[in-house]
Amino acid sequence: MIPFAQYLQGLASNGDLVTLEDPIDVPPNVVAAEALRASGPALRYERADGVDLASGTLSGPDQMQCRESRPWSRLALGLGLDPEASLVSVLETIAGLGPAGGDAEPTYAGQAASHTVDSVQELRLPQATDDVWSSLTLGVASVSTAEGSHWGPIYGSVISDDKLRVRTPAALSSLLDDDGTLSIALGVPPAALAATYLLAVTRRIEVPVQACGVADDVPLVPTNGGLVPSATELVVETTVADRRPDFQSDRREAWEHGVSSTPLSLSVERVIATDDPVIPFSPVERPLADDLQLAGLATAATLYRRVNDYWGISPVEWVLLPAEAELGICFVATDVLYAGFEWQLTNLLFTFSSLFDTVVVVDEDVSPRDLGRVLGDIWVKAHPSRDWIFSEPSAPAAKRPRYRQDGTTGARLYVNAAWDPRWEDSYIAPRVSFEQSFPKSVHDAARKTWTDCHDTVLDDDRNGS
Amino acid sequence: MVTDSFREYLQLLEDADDLVSISELVSWDLEASAVTTLANRNDGEVPIFESVEETAIDAALVGDPYRGPQCRPWEFLARSFGLPDVRSGTAYYEAVVDRLRSPREPRVVDRDSAACKEAVHVGTEVDLLSIPWPYIHQGDGGRYSNLHTVVAPDPETQWGHWSNHRMMLHDDALASLLFLAGEQVPNRYYYEYEPRDEPMPVAVVIGAEPAVQCSTEMWIPTGRSEAAFAGGLKEDPVDLVPCETSDLFVPATAELVIEGRVLPNERLDEGPFGDYFGYMNGPRRSMPVLAVDAITHRPEPRVPFCVEGTGVGYGQNSSSTLQTAAAGPDATLGLQAAGFDVSLAVPWRFTSRTVWVIATDRPYPGYLHELANFIFTTWGMLHIDFFVFVDADVDPLNPRAVLTAIALESDPDADFHQFGVERMPKVPLNIYQTPDEKGSADVGTSKAKTAKAYIDATTDRPTANGSEDEALRARAQEVLVDAGLSPESFDLLGDEGGESE
User: Fold this and answer.
1) pTM of the model as a whole
2) What's A318-427's CATH class?
3) ipTM of this model?
């Protein structure tokens, strides 16, 4: 388990985090969004007034701009993996944080947060330029029941010194007892946040955290609301003031695209923090935002596990819901086992997720780090009529896209950009690439010629391709 | 400074450390191409191979000279047109469109002052194989010239029609040209010259100045001259000089000119070749024959070539860059001139000749259908399969914004429109048809037809996120640059900054 503060140190030592020092005359949300837009590093905002903040910690480079990019590499580090870990390793690790089938062995530790904060507003959480109130994002809500503690993502606004308006999954709100006690953990270990998103997108919030794989990895500590990670930077203990508050917010954290949420008005009972707390935030609804990346990875982890559990074998190489497509398209690389398998696979994906109604199928040898190739193959390998397959127009609209929100039915689409298994080998066009278009002897001569002119290492050498 | 020759353009690159000179002996047989592939993949400098093995004349090869930086592919061409301060893609498009609105007729110069005439070989002196044509990919049908301008007769303009058709070398005086019916010059050959049993004179111009190479990639309206648009592009007339063996005119500052005739009713093998799709395409087919009558060149000519197929995905090469930097502004102007409310027409970043993105208003119902119909039946017929329409406030040069629009706004039920399913012609370079479907039609297109489609990724709703405060964004970018991030990644930093999207 890697505590959040330690995780930031790891990012910094990898050269993937830059610290901004006070005074910063631009709202953190704006700076965070610009850093994401530029595929920049994670940022830490050192502030004399208010808690330190961190952004971009769960995001990564724009795959539309960067060759060989791994937007999941920061989270990989936070999950205890090598930052160079494959997408599949990250997906499998995330999936392992979920319900463990009775095998979890939770551990308990002392509370890292021991310093009492007088008011939530004292934290000076970031505020979007067009918002009235500051926001808390990337929070973990904990609610206790007889079965244990249940976690769900929480997102909302700081209304006053002691009042919050938040949104949580409806499944979590429904577990609140008459006392309505709920704790919010900010700055949790990345594994805990990933587990929380996973439980939300898989609709397994009813499974107590003590029965989830995350409990094996993340030591827990009790609070008034329920168990939270002991290494949490800041805990806000609350009670529910109003279960049906009259407020509207158009802004949504990304998990809300696929999960039904409810508003709550909360009274803050106590705020405790570590001595030098640092809290992550996400510029919600901005491109490549942290919550978007996390929701995409948690959903992909679920789909990857489910489709590969389905046929008795594991034909799917990877599943990706890139933040660049705002979770509205699912990309899948697979061995097309037989003619028509791609139809089965895509419809299975539609069954397991209501986020998207477009799926793109690519060959198993395509790397998830090569989204550029995928975004070429869609148009080049797929026949414009035969391989763009539309269902009959009787499917419900997916939840993420913005069209057809009136409840009417319509078609789903999958694009088959994989080779047809019925084709003869001679029909398969070889790719143009350094590896395939030149013999080994020419590779060596070309590399020598190029490196003799340069001091730098070739990118493809660095990446081992 | 505006460059008036390919050699000046190379000097411009060298002065900015964007050219790397390779003096050690390099083979034309895959090696020069492999080094260029590495340069393209790693966003490295443009390589010039000063010493090429087995070359009868002292010529140099230049690998993908027009490839620009992956984050700003138009940058080198902007510099060559005297637009060094144009940082963003949108600003580049606006500047080029503005120049194309004022074409300038070319100027004919005396042959004695034409650099391309410094060495002249005619008749028995012609030796096509004296030039170090590269063998570009393993599996290609032969050695190719593929970054040039084919000048052919045009009854409507004395300056001829300029276009690009790859050329496969066969011996010291013969080559085959990829002529695909549906394009203007092949049409003239297949449906006018060949039925009259008449050879068609052509000149293949290699190493022309950047404005010429750019206008070669443009769809110029019938009756207008690419030469005049090239002059508009550089705000100065292009110098032309008469050919030695025909009535055609060629750019006077070119590195190398091959004059000849496309013979009627003669065919030679052509292909396979790894072309712009990023895949080797075949099968080998028969194509018209170029019989060479004269070769003229500068001393120590610089012979550019393109490693086709490396400009897909994240990669850039000359072909993909010319599509973005030349064909895009030209198409934008063409659609605006045709009366459409188009703000930008841009090739898709990851496969530039198959998909285009068009940012447009929708002034009336059915407008997108009319727009798609216009472009599919005029300039988008053979190569382009898809158009993606986005709102006028979406930047088509930002592929993430386009992908987001497709993901969130394109309803599979209502916004994917297939035109003429299995009714449209297609170039046989594609990889989604079987060899049987491609067949060997006499005029070069595939035997089987295909479909074309457009995707409506526009929205009827106001922008969800509202407008962003550019002054705040710019200040945030300054904060990040002050903290050590590269200014190249940002788009609002003025002269100090860059453009990432």
Assistant:
1) 0.94
2) alpha beta
3) 0.95
